[in-house]
Amino acid sequence: MSDLDELVRLYFRLSFSNKEILAILAHSYQTVISIRTLKRICKRLGLFRRKNQSSLEEVLAFIQQQIMTNGQMQGYRWLHLRAVQYGFVVSQDTVRRIIKLVDPQGVELRRARRLRRRQYNCRGPNALWHMDGYDKLKPYGIAISGCIDGFSRYVLWMEAYTTNNDPKLIASYFLKTVSFANGCPERIRADRGTENSSVEQMQIFLRRNHADNFAGEKSFIYGRSTANQRIEGWWATLRKQSAQFWISLFQTFQDDGHFTGDFLDKSLLQFCFLNLIQDELDDVVNTWNSHKIRPSASATSGRPVVMYSFPELHRAEDRLKPVVTDEIIVCSEECTPKGQYPCDETVFELCCLLMAENDWDAPRDPLVAADLYMRLREEILQII
Q1: Spatial separation of the C-alpha atoms in residues 19 and 38, rounded to whole Å
Q2: Are 193 and 135 in contact (CB under 8 A)?
Q3: For the chain, which residues score pLDDT lower than 70?
């Protein structure tokens, strides 16, 4: 199979329209083909949007599994995109009808939470990044740090770790993103938490010699967390698609007396669940970045990854500011990346030893992780 076939298959599975696929091929891969050629390739690869529909039984089983795993707050558009990405050929209307049939309570919950949103305007990608921390899992020893582009709503990073209060750790997420993009944003917005101090200093340092109106100290904005609209809106999405499941699971541990909030219990949760949560975060981010945002009077509509990567398709201009490699190296010396272990090193080594002695498998899903957590906790409490 040719490289072109692989690219077409990839972007088709991401549910991109033919127009979007053609634009990406031309812009990123210098490959210009006609719409008729694209359709012929799709036909040859067996890629159909309506033809050869997947069996309803398989689609039903997939949706039930998604609802069971991730809760009742996923809408039909989101689940339709997930289904397409998993290779199903199914219409949005079919997914909507299945959800209404198997999860009527979830449908009513979503209907009851409609909001009137504040208007938001941004001139283009990288004009304003929104940073914030998500603390709903923090009582259980897991903290999330995220950043989203204001114009495109493209998620730039979403990291789960044992803390989101360390300024040098948050700076490592920022610098990794800046290095990958080969530039820094025009401005960053964050709340006044001390965890953002290093990012503030680095952003001002990297922007100090630029000549635009937001250069230097004006390139970093502090404000109330509740008014940080873009990232606050995304936290609501994260809770629906992922976080509520973990909150409920850990709350059950606590209610049943299997989690006290002490050092050991937090370390065991981190050992068993942190990597799973990061994997799911990556999955949710990938789905979000490729889903289609509906048109509205106050914001640009489209797919976040397309709006971020190809602003000219939306009559916008990329506001990314150039950075000097040597300055990135200087900043990196002030960063503290994630550690080698998902929890305290001593607890990690003890858990690995117990798993080897008892021939216990590494957790591959939440149920296995929950079982491992209970077993490790019981064994260690007997030792101490």
Answers
A1: 10
A2: no
A3: 1, 50-52, 68-76, 101-102, 105-121, 225-227, 296-299
Which amino acid type is present at position 56? L
- Reference 33, options 19, 44, 48; nearest CA is 19
- Please, which contacts does 218-222 make with residues 24 or more away whose CB atoms are closer than 8 Å? 218/187, 219/185, 219/186, 219/187, 219/188, 220/187, 220/188, 220/190, 221/187, 221/188, 221/189, 221/190, 222/189, 222/190, 222/191, 222/192
Cβ pair 219, 203 in contact under 8 A:
yes
- Look at residue 286 in the predicted model and tell me its pLDDT: 93
Domain tally for the chain?
3
Q: Mapping DSSP to helix (H, G, I), strand (E, B) and coil, where does residue 119 land?
A: coil
Q: Which domain holds residue 41?
A: 3-45
List CB contacts of 268: < 8 A, sequence separation 6 or more. Answer: 343, 347, 351, 373, 376, 377, 380
Residue 175 and residue 87 in one domain? no
- Angle (CA) 307-310-315 rounded to 5° is 80
Answer yes or no: do 85 and 223 share one domain.
no
Is residue 103 within 8 Å of 34, Cβ to Cβ?
no
Strands (E), the chain: 129-134, 143-149, 155-161, 188-190, 220-222
Q: Give the count of beta carbons closer than 10 Å to the beta carbon of residue 254.
A: 14
* Other C-beta atoms lying within 10 Å of the C-beta of residue 290: 19
Residue 9 contacts residue 42 (beta carbons within 8 Å) = no
Dihedral in degrees, nearest 10, Cα atoms 222, 225, 229, 235: 140
Residue 331 pLDDT: 96
Buried b (16+ CB within 10 A) or exposed e, 315-332: ebebbbbebeeebbeebe
Local structure of residue 99 (DSSP, 8 states): H
